[in-house]
Design brief:
- The protein has 8 helices and 13 strands.
- It is an alpha+beta fold.
- It has one domain (6-222): 4-Layer Sandwich (Metallo-beta-lactamase, Chain A).
- Strand 8 (142-146) and strand 9 form a beta hairpin.
- The chain is globular, with a radius of gyration of 16 Å.
- The structure holds zinc ion (ZN) (2 copies).
Length: 223
């Protein structure tokens, strides 16, 4: 079965330079905004400039810089919010309080139209994406994976040369390592990923050189 291609553009938002990503089905030009942390007018302008129709809002996890603009974007467009996993509800509930503290007043909490979990699939235009539950940075963190394109949006699970923080409430280092090595690596070394912050990389490159989760680092951790 051949699926239409996808395209993606990264639009860093918020003072935390979070990699909000606009992905779309190249055939239908139906788009999803993944992790609209804020700056909704700018995201709307980017969609319009590319001639895209917003179909979904996808959320990797409930942190302010990833989800702070969700309520505003949903209110303005009426499109459904899909994700994260329900274990991130407590983070979503804290968005207004975190927003006030971190210079994003007006950031609102929300209830997703569809919570997501491991093995779920989500559609965008004529494309189908897989959902992988990757707890550790937050308990309800998920990853969006488009298998035919070898493309993933991994939020704050994994970065080029680093991994997500685990010192937040209900963060868990062992769980994060497990998520990366047991859930992401099996998807394939050739998978290119957009992390929540910083430049893109591939799973294969991180397995070779990431100081936290390279094959060598994992091997020495087990000794
Ligand atoms: Zn985060
Ligand atoms: Zn983040």
């Amino acid at each position: 079965m051949s699926e239409p291609a996808i395209q993606a553009v990264i639009a860093p938002v918020t003072p935390l330079q979070q990699n909000c990503t606009i992905v779309w089905c190249a055939k239908t030009l139906k788009a999803a905004v993944i992790d609209p942390g804020g700056e909704v007018p700018r995201l709307m302008a980017a969609l319009k400039a590319k001639g895209l129709t917003l179909e979904k809002i996808w959320i990797t996890h409930g942190h302010l810089d990833h989800a702070g603009g969700t309520a505003a974007l949903a209110a303005e467009t009426g499109v459904p919010i899909e994700g994260p996993h329900p274990d991130d509800q407590f983070w979503i509930d804290m968005i207004p309080e975190s927003g006030a503290r971190y210079g994003m007043p007006g950031a609102e909490s929300f209830t997703p139209d569809r919570w997501l979990g491991d093995g779920d699939t989500v559609t965008l235009g004529e494309t189908e994406w897989e959902v992988v539950h990757c707890p550790g940075h937050t308990p309800g963190h998920i990853v969006f994976f488009h298998r035919p394109s070898r493309f993933a949006q991994v939020g704050d699970v994994l970065f080029k040369g680093s991994i997500g923080r685990t010192d937040f409430p209900r963060g868990n280092f062992e769980q994060l390592i497990h998520s990366i090595t047991q859930k992401l690596w099996p998807l394939g070394d050739d998978v290119a990923f957009v992390p929540g912050h910083g430049p893109m990389s591939t799973f294969g490159a991180e397995r070779r050189s990431n100081p936290f989760v390279s094959d060598l680092a994992i091997e020495s951790m087990n000794v």
